[in-house]
Design brief:
Aspartate Aminotransferase, domain 2, Aspartate Aminotransferase, domain 1, 2 domains, seven-stranded mixed β-sheet, three-stranded antiparallel β-sheet, 17 strands, binds ligand T4K
């Protein structure tokens, strides 16, 4: 391979399309603080996600922090260690105590039975992650939350565009956070959003993301600054026009990977569950060394040598991070521990050539044969 292939590559509109979208910003000199592009993107996202309540943010992480703040939570929050640092950091940075529950081997999402075991009188919420775009068992989680009067805030950073039986991922729980980072299926360069059930939260979220300002001369909260600027919103408006095409192209890439990898002994991939419209955000591969004859790290190294930048999303587990391990241990989440040692996310993006997918799969197969 001539050029190195990285785990993903940002999708972008045509340059002229973006220029056309931002031209009025030059004329108006209005660049941020909830301008026209911000309003336009918010309303188009409501339509696209079929949800009445959407609030935009600078990034997914700030969106998650703001919704935790706006819900005025106190105490323990049950979450998954099998995620990006952001999920647990948001909980901790808001003064809440993360409590790790184990995940399901089948799709890496939180195991409802493990959630139930971790509930104490101090538990106030559950923050599950639709990791890789794999939808959590939303019905079981909601049933547990209702029984124990807990809030459910989904980290749906990976799940934009995912639907179950025609219902968007944005519809589950009390709220869902989406990331619109450059590496996501839908990007605004940097950006994120919260979709939520209670319409009263809209004003509160807008206030939290704007220094806690509640009126011309009133500041009621110690808020931060998490407003999406007009250039990012304009990128979102453009990219949203091409979302269906983006997902369709990713599906072709995913299907080629599945065709090539599914037959390999000791290699497991995730197929979308019944009734789920997937977004093909990531292509995680689980390598069982006892059957495959080589480890995940062997495959990582071989791909690296062949010019392919796969990534170990999500290794190490969050409960093994230096900033958490004095309090937590991944030994208490053994399924997540095993998955983290076996997972490799291989390149996945809309314009990835099928010929490159074939070559990546050839490298993987060769490692197993050695
Ligand atoms: N919750 C979950 C479950 C998440 O996965 C994330 C973010 C969040 C919350 C927080 O959402 P944000 O606050 O980020 O909106 C990347 C992303 O920065 C991060 O957004 C993402 N998850 C995480 C899984 O991946 P890195 O450090 O691995 O990114 P980096 O810079 O190594 O980029 C990965 C590849 O993407 C590069 O090899 C090439 C490609 N790339 C990257 C950039 C920056 C592009 O093609 N264009 C680009 O502009 O974290």
């Amino acid at each position: 391979m001539s050029d190195r292939i990285l785990v993903t590559r940002s999708s972008m509109p045509e340059f002229e399309e973006y220029c056309e979208e931002i031209r009025p910003l030059w004329e108006s000199h209005w660049l941020t603080n909830m301008g026209v592009e911000h309003k336009k993107l918010e309303s188009e996202l409501k339509e696209r996600l079929g949800t009445p309540n959407v609030c935009l943010f600078t990034n997914g992480h700030n969106a998650l922090e703001c919704i935790l703040e706006a819900l005025d939570l106190r105490g323990e929050v049950i979450t998954t260690p099998f995620s990006f640092a952001s999920t647990t950091h948001a909980i901790s940075r808001k003064g809440l105590t993360p409590v790790f529950a184990d995940v399901r081997e089948s799709d890496c999402t939180l195991d409802p039975e493990c959630i139930e075991r971790m509930i104490t009188p101090r538990t106030c919420a559950i923050v599950p992650v639709h990791v890789y775009g794999n939808l959590c068992d939303v019905d079981a989680i909601q049933e547990i939350a209702d029984r124990h009067s807990l809030k459910v805030i989904y980290d749906a950073a990976h799940a934009f565009g995912v639907e179950r039986n025609g219902v968007s991922a944005a519809a589950f729980g009390d709220a869902s956070m989406f990331s619109f980072h450059a590496t996501k299926v839908f990007n605004t360069i940097e950006g994120g959003a919260v979709c939520f059930k209670d319409p009263c939260l809209y004003d509160t979220l807008n206030q939290w993301k704007n220094f806690g300002i509640t009126g011309p001369e009133d500041v009621e909260y110690v808020g931060g600054n998490a407003k999406m600027n007009e250039f990012c919103a304009a990128m979102g408006v453009c990219n949203l026009r091409h979302l269906d095409d983006e997902i369709a192209k990713r599906k072709v890439v995913a299907e080629r990977y599945w065709d090539r990898l599914e037959g390999l002994h000791g290699v497991r991939i995730f197929r979308p569950a019944d009734g789920v419209k997937a977004n093909y955000a990531y292509l995680p591969v689980i390598i069982d060394p006892s059957k495959f004859g080589a480890t995940r790290d062997d495959v990582f190294d071989a791909l690296d040598a062949a010019g392919v930048g796969a990534r170990k999303y999500f290794y190490p587990l969050i409960n093994d991070f230096a900033c958490y391990r004095s309090v937590y241990s991944s030994d208490r989440t053994p399924v997540a521990q095993k998955l983290a040692s076996q997972v490799l996310t291989v390149p996945m993006f809309a314009d990835l050539a099928l010929e490159d997918v074939n070559r990546i799969c050839d490298v993987i197969a060769q490692v197993g044969r050695k």
